[in-house]
Amino acid sequence: MTGNKYMKRALELARQAFDNDEVPIGAVVVDNTTGEIISEAYNLSQHSLCATAHAEMLAINEACQKLAANRLRGMDLYVTLEPCTMCAGAISFSRIENLYFGAYDEKGGAVENGVKFYEASTCHHKPNIFGGIMEKECSEILKKFFKKKRT
To answer: Taking the model in full, what pTM does it have?
Structure first.
């Protein structure tokens, strides 16, 4: 599987979130040695009534449970939107090796925008970062979702 295939899967998950009236963000944790998808999730903040139920948080938690580990060394995370500060922190603490994201988030992102979490001197681990993967597709679903909410 190529990287785009993992992002395509994350986008499929984002579509599921959209269909369930959740902010359409999907995330996939992949073992970068075997290529196996370890976990996947989409946002569930609205339905779970939990502010921390972001796709990244759910996928990281599931991967930790599945692997019986609190560190995800050798794992990659594919997510359709640039992570927020909370998710960037979880990515750091879980020791994700590579972060791949689709759309940039000028307002809420914390990787290339906003607080730039990984540039802080207090950050213990910085993943390798690759942004803009399938950016157009990842951005379009979010725009469609919020346009629908405004009408």
So the answer is: 0.96
Q: Among the options 12, 36, 40, 56, which is catalytic?
A: 56
User: What DSSP letter does each residue of 47-98 carry, written as one string?
Assistant: HHT-TT--HHHHHHHHHHHHHT-S--TTEEEEEEE---HHHHHHHHHHT-SE
32-91 pLDDT per residue, tens = 999 999 999 999 999 999 999 999 999 999 999 999 999 999 999 999 999 999 999 999
Instruction: Please tell me the distance from the alpha carbon of residue 151 to that of residue 147, in angstroms, as a whole number.
Output: 7
Instruction: Mark residue 134 as left, alpha or beta (left: phi above 0; alpha: psi -120 to 50; beta: remaining).
Output: left
Identify how many contiguous H helices and E strands the chain contains and give both numbers. 5, 5
Altogether, the residues listed in the chain come to a count of 151
Q: What pairing do the DSSP bridges indicate for beta strands 98-103 and 75-81?
A: parallel
Q: Enter the tokens of residue 95.
A: 């020791």
Which tens digits make up the pLDDT trace of 90-123? 999 999 999 999 999 999 999 999 999 999 999 9
- Model pLDDT, residue 34: 97
- Catalytic-residue membership of 137: no
- Residue 42's SS3 state is strand
